[in-house]
Amino acid sequence: MTKGEETRRLTRLRLVPRLLRTSAFRYTLIYTTFFVLSVVGIGYFVYESTIGQTMERLDEELFRELNHLARVNASAGSDGLVGLNRVNNEVNRLKIVQDNALYLVVYGGPPIRILSTDFINPPREVLNAGPEMFEFDYDARAVVDGVVVTESRPAVGRVATFRYGTPDGKEVRAIILAARDIRDIDQIRQDARNTILRLGSVTLFLGLVLGSIYSGAFLRRVDAIGRTVRAIRDGDLSRRVALTGSDDEFDTLSTNINGMLDQIERLMTGMRQVSDNIAHDLRSPLTRIKARLETAMGDPQADKDEVIERTTMDVERLLATFNALLSITRIESGEGGGSKVPVDVAAVAEEMLELYEPAADEAGFALHGHVERVPDVLGNRELISQLIANLLDNALKYGRRPTETHPAIELTVVPRPSGGVLLSVMDNGPGVSEGDRERILQRFVRLERSRSTSGNGLGLSLVAAIARRHNAQLTIGRGLPHDPDARGLVPPTAYGLGVRIAFPPAPEKPKPSKPASHGALSEAKA
Ligand SMILES: Nc1ncnc2c1ncn2[C@@H]1O[C@H](COP(=O)(O)OP(=O)(O)OP(=O)(O)O)[C@@H](O)[C@H]1O
Ligand SMILES: [Mg+2]
């Protein structure tokens, strides 16, 4: 045996106990047991309604015949032997027409006197037989290949017992046995039993074979999935479960597993990108700090206070980056932000408008609010405030074109026709070209022209994470037109940036929302 054959044989051997443990095999075993029981049950029913009935008819026949013989016996009055002689004669008459009939008439005893018999040896069962029909074997002469032999044959019989008083005051017993040879019936009966047994065995065998084939197929599919999962666990993230194309439940499961693996791979790639970005983004401030400190150490004339101040600023930036990253990670893992409660987005928006009014004023922005009554959304109030704050921050930071004399920001909160709430923050600044709109949601992405302003490129990532956390749809698109009088007619580039977040309706019946106050800041812009 070659090494390959040997391992295959061992694998097969190991497969057997595993086959027996599969749920497919256990189910087959249960089905098989039911099938075998049904086959045996049906067999028993057929047996009872054929052989059983024949035996019952025989019983009835013997009962009536014994009654008849008892009447013949009684016709002689109290003289036992005369009566029994009449019975003998009657029995001889009956035997002429019934060739399977057997009789025995005995008197007295012990020792008994046999008055007439069809048996070589009177069957022992007769002496202590009850009133029911009973089965017994008797010896009979037969010719086999020209030789006379004695063989045992099956029979059924019933007995009638009579008692007589003798002149000396004793009691004597007489027994009449009426019996039938049941060789033929017995043969059929044995054949029927064997057939039922064979049917049961074949059903059991087929059930087990089918069960093994079925479980084997089952195991092979499960093993294929297991092998892929193990390969992935061992580091080969590119592996996928092969589909058979049969579109069965295993294919569905495999498709789902493959989808999950795709998602994991995407996340892993994302993570790698993020760590690369972090390394890249933190390296420059850290290098800067190191260089500055080294220069300061080597130069006794250096302005230590300034070094400390600038280093502190750098460290603060680093800390801010770390904190933003941590928040995003916590929100995305579902850990940050606590549990979801009904939040009135309109109220949150009003608050943020109030909070940002001084900053907007100072920067020369017109901050408008258009806040309507909206149904509550299910979420976290702090996270929604954070989301609005990040968007307003960006609008104030990037929403001004050098030529613009009336920079404007508009915060809108309106109910969606399909339920839920639409929140948007728009400005009339330079906007973001279509090609960059997806990109700016990624961590650490800052557009070239924004390099001069401070920031980590994490604000919109946090907005996206908060939106995802609320199952809200985030779209980055056009904002306010550069020329407010030319709405609809201006080229697509003549708009600022608009960020829209569509919150889904809360699953429960939304409770009546509080009336939104329409203060000076929240006046709708026409
Ligand atoms: N309203 C806007 N108008 C024009 N460009 C924008 C606007 N908002 C964001 N951007 C661009 O998208 C980039 C990413 O924004 P994001 O808020 O994620 O980071 P950031 O503002 O640069 O830094 P941080 O928010 O972490 O302080 C910005 O650097 C800017 O280039
Ligand atoms: Mg920002």
UniProtKB/TrEMBL annotation:
<dbReference type="InterPro" id="IPR003594">
    <property type="entry name" value="HATPase_dom"/>
</dbReference>
<dbReference type="GO" id="GO:0000155">
    <property type="term" value="F:phosphorelay sensor kinase activity"/>
</dbReference>
<feature type="domain" description="HAMP">
    <location>
        <begin position="216"/>
        <end position="269"/>
    </location>
</feature>
<dbReference type="GO" id="GO:0005886">
    <property type="term" value="C:plasma membrane"/>
</dbReference>
<dbReference type="Pfam" id="PF02518">
    <property type="entry name" value="HATPase_c"/>
</dbReference>
<keyword id="KW-1133">Transmembrane helix</keyword>
<dbReference type="InterPro" id="IPR005467">
    <property type="entry name" value="His_kinase_dom"/>
</dbReference>
<feature type="transmembrane region" description="Helical">
    <location>
        <begin position="196"/>
        <end position="219"/>
    </location>
</feature>
<keyword id="KW-0472">Membrane</keyword>
<feature type="domain" description="Histidine kinase">
    <location>
        <begin position="277"/>
        <end position="507"/>
    </location>
</feature>
<protein>
    <recommendedName>
        <fullName>histidine kinase</fullName>
        <ecNumber>2.7.13.3</ecNumber>
    </recommendedName>
</protein>
<dbReference type="InterPro" id="IPR003661">
    <property type="entry name" value="HisK_dim/P_dom"/>
</dbReference>
<dbReference type="InterPro" id="IPR004358">
    <property type="entry name" value="Sig_transdc_His_kin-like_C"/>
</dbReference>
<dbReference type="InterPro" id="IPR036097">
    <property type="entry name" value="HisK_dim/P_sf"/>
</dbReference>
<keyword id="KW-0597">Phosphoprotein</keyword>
<dbReference type="InterPro" id="IPR036890">
    <property type="entry name" value="HATPase_C_sf"/>
</dbReference>
<dbReference type="InterPro" id="IPR003660">
    <property type="entry name" value="HAMP_dom"/>
</dbReference>
<dbReference type="Pfam" id="PF00672">
    <property type="entry name" value="HAMP"/>
</dbReference>
<feature type="region of interest" description="Disordered">
    <location>
        <begin position="502"/>
        <end position="526"/>
    </location>
</feature>
<dbReference type="Pfam" id="PF00512">
    <property type="entry name" value="HisKA"/>
</dbReference>
<feature type="transmembrane region" description="Helical">
    <location>
        <begin position="24"/>
        <end position="47"/>
    </location>
</feature>
<keyword id="KW-0808">Transferase</keyword>
<dbReference type="InterPro" id="IPR050428">
    <property type="entry name" value="TCS_sensor_his_kinase"/>
</dbReference>
<keyword id="KW-0812">Transmembrane</keyword>
<keyword id="KW-0902">Two-component regulatory system</keyword>
<keyword id="KW-0418">Kinase</keyword>
